[in-house]
Amino acid sequence: MPEYRFFTLPAVAFGLSIAPAALANAVGEEIVVSVLRTPVEIDRVAASVTVLDLEEIEAQQPVALTDVLVRTAGIGITRNGGYGTATSLRIRGADAGHSVLVIDGMRLSDTSTTDGGADFGGLFADDIERIEILRGPQSVLWGSNAIGGVVNVVTARPTAPLEGRFAVEGGSRSTLNARAGAGGSSDAIDWRIAGSTFTTDGISARANGNERDGYSRQSGSGTLTARLAPDLALDLRGYYANGRNDFDGFSGDSRAYGLTQTWSAYSGLNAAFLDGRFTNRIAVIENRTDRDNFDPVRSIRQQTFDAQGRTRRYEYQGGLALADGIDLAFGAEREEQRMRTASPGNNTAPISVTRAEADIDSLYAQARISPMQALTAEGGIRHDSHSRFGGNTVFSLGAAFAPGNGNTVVRANYAEGFKAPSLYQLFTQYGSADLRPEHARGWEAGIEQSLADDRATIAVTYFQRKSDNLIDFAYCPTTGTPPAQCYIPGTQVERFGYYANIDRTRARGVEATASAQFGPVFARGNFSWIDAEDRSDGRQLPRVPRYLANATLGYSAPAGHSLSVALRYAGKSRDRAGGVMLDDYWLTDLRGEVALAEDLSLYGRVENLFDTDYATASGYGTLGRSFYAGARARF
What we know:
It holds the Pfam family Plug. The protein has helices at residues 54-60, 65-69, 139-142, 423-427; strands spanning 26-27, 30-33, 40-41, 49-53, 75-79, 87-91, 99-103, 106-108, 128-135, 149-155, 163-171, 175-185, 189-203, 213-229, 232-246, 257-273, 278-294, 303-323, 326-342, 353-372, 375-386, 390-401, 408-419, 438-451, 456-475, 497-518, 521-534, 547-556, 562-570, 573-574, 581-582, 585-597, 600-607, 626-634.
């Protein structure tokens, strides 16, 4: 497929809305999950879910959001260079565009990217409070693209009249990362503002390059929740970010760079009736991303790429507790997608601009029933009406069983997913208006067991997913007479490839996780076997390692001091370009933290301790041994 650089989608809405129906917190000792549209205790969730709280996130000292995600079961990433470059997330072997990103209960995407999804490359761990990862097809609640799973990020929320936190760190390659946030809560108003800045000299994006490709970004956000009445609240959110990313061409070093600006706005009204048993949210959300690429060595037109993606969503979400153990979630949505792209040539000819649009109207409903304390069953249905593809309906069904004292939880579910072709795949010079939506059907079954008075936990899950009509980039032949698809539609201009429904896949595998803490000593790890097969040729899907593993062993003193070593393994995989095989690799990190006071600590880490030479995408560079040190505080 054609490779453009999609830069900084930086923390897009780390300050965006969280409605009452999407809260994620802990009730007593019970973990509550918010990614299911309504708060659900984790023992009642039928699908495989991972929950990471602030303490665990800070212990990993991440820069990017993917630094955390890649250390959980079943997740692999591909990054085309250093921080800020195009980054693809694959959950259980699903394509990069098959993962949905949700920030504070709101789904985000960029309609001008090739797959219409979120680019995780510029998403940093700025103002995060919590991360939830829901695996498997989830289109009933989250619509198109949710074939592999959903990543739900919950940002910090004020709980005191005035509070704040900040962190600053520096390290290898002249890297500087600083972030801060402050807010307050009162009977009438909750507010929070946050900002961050990041800069690094970086590494060469191409593996054979000699010059460094730097990256910088700045972002700011603001949130305001006004309680207009006891059961009525108004949410207003705003976000702006800009970034610059240097990158290389196919042949190596270049002076090319890209600029990205992102705007996000949210306004929502939340109302509750029937003593809080009937909750309602009405919201309007708009996201816009502008991207421009430049090449200073061009003699006439230095701009090489121009794109704008805009999504506007109108949402109604309701929740109804009919009785103890009977809960309903339902809603209606309208999504309006707009895209504009252009690739100006280095000449004086008029610039050809591609404009495209599509709308999706949706209805969904899900019921969760607990006929007995230990058993929860759930089922859901969603219907989408796409302005270009007509109607599509998906279903889900599952159950969670936690007998006795809850030390054992058994989960099983069946779910369906779909993905409508992106505007880029349909209407650009590589597009095809004949594309059909992708469909997936998956199921999983797993068991989780707590041991030693909850000081240790083990879990094993088996999953399987079959997908049809998958969209991939088909290359045109270089010899002979090209077929009709190798001409830009409506012209006699040849193209080197086009998007087509050419793949059918089957993914199956096992995810095993374990954790233990005895006194100050802790250990945790996971192992994933992912057999993701292209059913047309029987080969493992590109850039999907068959084996993934993570392990962390450490010491955490009651005073707040800690020291740990983290290992990450990715098995061999096949790259897209010519079937090049990527070697397997081990990465080792060291992390430490010293608490100077209750709310002040110093920390440091060494990443890729043994300076391992590895690749996640053929021809692209990766970070070698890196040193970082910083401080964090809160008030």
